[in-house]
Amino acid sequence: MSTCIDDATIIRHASGELDPEVSSRLESHLQSCERCRLALQAQRETAALLDAWKVTLPADLDVREAVLTVAKQVSPAPNWRPMAAAILIAAGLGLAAGRLIPPRTSQHATLVEVTPDELMERIGLDSLPVESAALDQVFDDESLAEAGEQS
Amino acid sequence: MQQLAAGSMSALGTLVERHQARVAALAYRFSGRWDVSEDITQEVFLRLHQTARRYRASAALTTWLYRVVVNCCLDHARRRKPRVLDEMTPSAKSEPTSVLILDERRRAIEEAIAELPERQRIALLLHRFENLSHEEIARTTGWSASAVEALIVRAYAALRVRLAEWAGSAGMTAADNRRSTA
Asked: B129-132 long-range CB contacts below 8 Å, 24 or more apart?
């Protein structure tokens, strides 16, 4: 290895993360490169300092009972995927059912054949004054044809 | 894990017994306080319980565990403001010098780590104290491999400078450090 070793590789080498073959090539370079040797030494010293930092848990630190108490009160979050799938399937079945089964007519609706005059009488328009000319203007064939083109 | 996913309290209790020491130690190193560490540890196991159904057997349990720990630590740090370390118990005057030096060194390390940005801190703790490789840290945290590499490089560099300053002010040499850690 002719070029110096980068910091990330120094760290990996110091912590034993490199493949043996790569480490071996690195060691060859270190024999002739003081800069990299010093960098590796500094990394090892820092690591040794950190490793000397021992943590002793307090004797009364035990979260088991607290965790179990809360966990019993709170049930796990439901897995929404099966529920969502069920809803989608039900919706799909509902759509399919809607197309296969004809709509049921209301039991109150009845089809009655009426003449226009009878309809006018039923809704109370037969007593209103009507200017036949105006009606003629609205309902003549020509205006109806124009209305059809505009729609 | 299957039992935990099924809601077994016994399985949850076993999980806590087996892993709470490791989780609490990591949480303490991250936060610097035992009361905070205890809060984080509880939160970790409650989250594990809540999300057990999402655990895939193809993933290592420890990877999943560490991911939850990392998330809880970072969430806790975002909620809390200034980080105040636990006060050290004053050493008695009769304590030998070596013990005092060890106490001061421990304090210096804790303060140096506390000064690291949160992501650098968690990456360093996972690397140094949980012995996770760069790749394992990337898998655990979901960060890219290059991001993990950069975080670890910067963390160690910052600690090197900070601890060298402390050693210089304490009149200690590298040889002194090696002797006291041996």
From this structure: B129/A50, B129/B25, B129/B26, B129/B29, B130/B22, B130/B26, B130/B66, B132/B66
